[in-house]
Amino acid sequence: MLADIIDQSSTSIPLDADVMNFPAWDSLVHVKILLAIEAKTGRLLDSDLISNIKSLQDIAAALNHHDG
Amino acid sequence: MSAPNRSFGAVEILTERLILKPVSPLSFARQTLHWTKDRQAMSDLQMKVDGWTLFSWWRKLRKLTRKKRMCHGIWLKEGGGPVGLHMALINMPSRDVGTGILIGEQQWRGKGIASEAKTAIINDLFQRCNVNRVTSWVHARNFASIHTMHRVGFTREAVMRQQIALLDGSLTDHLGFGLLRSEWLQRQGEPVAAGVRQESAN
Known about the structure:
The structure holds two protein chains of two kinds. By secondary structure, chain A is an all-alpha fold. Helix content of chain A is about 55%, strand content about 0%. In chain A, helix 2 (about 25-40) runs parallel beside helix 4. Chain A starts with a helix and ends with a helix. The mean pLDDT of chain A is about 85. Chain B is built from six helices and nine strands; from the N terminus they run E-E-H-H-H-E-E-E-H-E-H-E-E-H-E. Chain B has helices spanning about 25-30, 40-45, 55-65, 115-125, 145-150, 180-185; strands at about 15, 20, 70-75, 85-90, 95-105, 135-140, 155-165, 170-180, 200. Chain B has a nine-stranded mixed β-sheet, sandwiched between helices. In chain B, helix 4 links the parallel strand 5 (about 95-105) and strand 6 (about 135-140). Chain B starts with 12 loop residues before the first strand and ends with a strand. Residues about 1-5 and about 190-200 of chain B have low confidence and may be disordered. The chains are: A mainly alpha, B alpha+beta. The interface of A and B includes residues 19, 28, 35, 50 and 51 of A.
């Protein structure tokens, strides 16, 4: 998802990428990520999730949370 | 403990791309009145969304620059008019500062201006003004500002459920973010977002 949004190969994104250590993850990308998660899950994210998504792992957790 | 509020007047701050200057309300109001037509931006700042005039915008800016407040206009070093506004209000005796930021020029949103400006002003607040914590409130649908909070190092501390009415009438949560002086000190050894450096004009 992040690779699609920033138009980079997924192999160029470190697994520990987060808003602090990955410069391409700017505010516009952040908006797109959260909207993409909402589109994928088909519902608005709650504020806990919104304020806790800061890393690739958090994105995966948000998507898994929906699948689970 | 060192004396609180040693100097809570705004000073000029330079960052990698920006000049942050104390606001002169009348000239700033003249240059930025068109920002008040951006209903979304005004709504995000919890300001009224309609009916702004040069007089009412000037009065608002004048209020934002009064005692115990600090208001910086945000300019690009490359030139042009102001692109944004950062506001701060100190609460004594806890030395807690409430802050807010507006990037008024739409073409400069999503380019890291808010993170760069906020980081520099927060550095100034902790270094020069001796504050103990900085607080910022953001509604839950303002994803870009939440990103800024993460970048600058804030922790989400509070949720006021369904406190904010959005422009479409729906309700959303209000999120309180905080950054303590001890956390800021701890972060000084870490890489800073957006390569911000700060030079006081004094």
